[in-house]
Amino acid sequence: MIERSEKIKLFSQRLKNAKKANRYFYMREIQGPSRAKVIVEGKEYINFASYSYLGISDHPDIMQAAKNAIDKYGSATGGVRLLAGTTTLHTKLEEKIAEFKKVEAAITYSSGYVANLSSISSLTSTKDIIVMDKLDHASIIDGCMLSGAHFRTYKHNNMKHLEKILEKNKDYNIKLIIVDAVFSMDGDIADLPNIRKLADKYGADVMIDEAHALGVLGETGRGIEEHFNIDGSVDIKMGTLSKTIPSVGGYIAGNKDLINYLKHISRGFVFSASLPPSSVAAALAALNVMEKETWRYEKLRENTRLFNQGLIEMGYNTMNSETAVVPILIGDEERTLELARFVNDNGIYVCPILYPAIPKNTNRIRNHVMATHSIKDINKALDIYYKGGKKIGIK
Question: What is the mean pLDDT of residues 182-189?
Fold first, then answer.
């Protein structure tokens, strides 16, 4: 068994080697807003690393709302939500989220990670079972572990395996299926219609993490239910305020009883400082922009189709992506880093995703398409990937 100090030493050496070989791509300083083009350490890049799918991180309405909130409420609330930390803005944001997600109520947390961790651990216990997709986000896994509930994983998007697990564990009183709407490393979509059918058959509830689905799926960006045209099929709706919505935080949306319970029981809400008013105002304004500027959804879909199809035609493996998350599966770590170095050197800002963030031998470059990418941006990026793949012999 490797001691903690040895683990740190080994990792430090790996980090040192990566930087020495000019193959460390992380935590570089971006000088300005997260736009389709960004300045990183003095150089302009086409930005394929951002979660700002609709390209509204510097939208004037959102920025002005944040500034106004600081003028009116100050930089912080000075308390937790249950005590001195709730302003009129917090109430309005939660009401707006509920309206946008077509449910009765919502609760906001300090991050999407905390939203999952706190809600899952509050809603399940040692007497319950959670069933989750093998590729669910780390925050879901951690929430399951913290809850103490029994939990099982089914093969990715495999409904036969899901049913087998539900059948085997049908005697549990509380059964909760938790799944990502859009899988953050793969870009594919959960099979919600069949998940709902199985949930009804075996008396389970469904919780969906829409971190990468809000503003991406559905004609008006409302997420996976709108995408499949099955409103009301999700019992617990989780999302973030830090991806398409350019702020910070996370939320859970559902019926009033569920939300009231979480507001008084979930430790990540009860014992965490309230979101700053400026962040709340930015999120609220972003939802209003998303309702008004619906052209962004079609532009995002158009850009996604162009980029994904272009990569496939070159021979790249984009897995089963059907969203703005477009991975390029390489497998071998060395070749993944070579391609990442080439495209970064030639003007694409993007990061490689390596084990252990993903399973072994599935190393990849993960691209994020934005509505504000121009056709010229997309074509230039495709040209760079073409040249990079040819040089390195990947495609």
Answer: 97
**Active-site residue identified among 52, 147, 184, 274:** 184
3-state secondary structure of 326: strand
Are 378 and 388 within one domain?
yes
Kindly state whether residues 154 and 209 are assigned to the same domain.
yes
For 316, phi then psi, to 5°, come to -75, 150
| Residue 209 burial (CB count, 10 A) | 30
Residue 243 annotated as catalytic? yes
Distance, in Å, from the CA atom of 342 to the CA atom of 344, rounded to the nearest integer, reads: 5
Structure tokens at 57: 């991180």
Q: Is 155 a catalytic residue?
A: no
With tokens 């896994």, the residue in question is 141
Rounded to whole angstroms, the Cα distance separating 334 from 340 reads: 10
Q: Which two tokens stand for residue 354?
A: 């390596």
Catalytic residue among 212, 263, 299, 368: 212
326 and 314 fall within a common domain: yes
For the chain, strand residue ranges (E) read 37-40, 43-47, 105-109, 129-133, 150-154, 175-180, 205-209, 236-240, 250-254, 325-331, 348-349, 351-353, 363-368
Longest CA span, the chain: 60
What whole-number distance in Å separates Cα of residue 337 and Cα of residue 352? 7
How many residues in total does the chain contain? 395
Query: What single letter denotes the amino acid at residue 178?
Result: I
Domain limit, last residue, from 243, 270, 292: 292
Res 1: pLDDT: 55
Q: Read off the pLDDT of residues 253-303 as tens digits, 9 standing for 90 and up.
A: 999 999 999 999 999 999 999 999 999 999 999 999 999 999 999 999 999
Note down the domain range covering 169.
60-292
Catalytic residue among 96, 243, 263, 373: 243
pTM equals 0.95
Domain count, the chain: 2
Q: Are 289 and 61 in contact, with CB atoms under 8 Å apart?
A: yes
Active site residue 212: yes
Q: Are 98 and 253 in contact (CB under 8 A)?
A: yes
Return the CA Rg of the chain: 21
Cβ-in-10-Å burial (0-12, 13-18, 19+) of 255 comes to middle
Smallest Cα–Cα separation from 80: which of 40, 111, 109, 54?
109
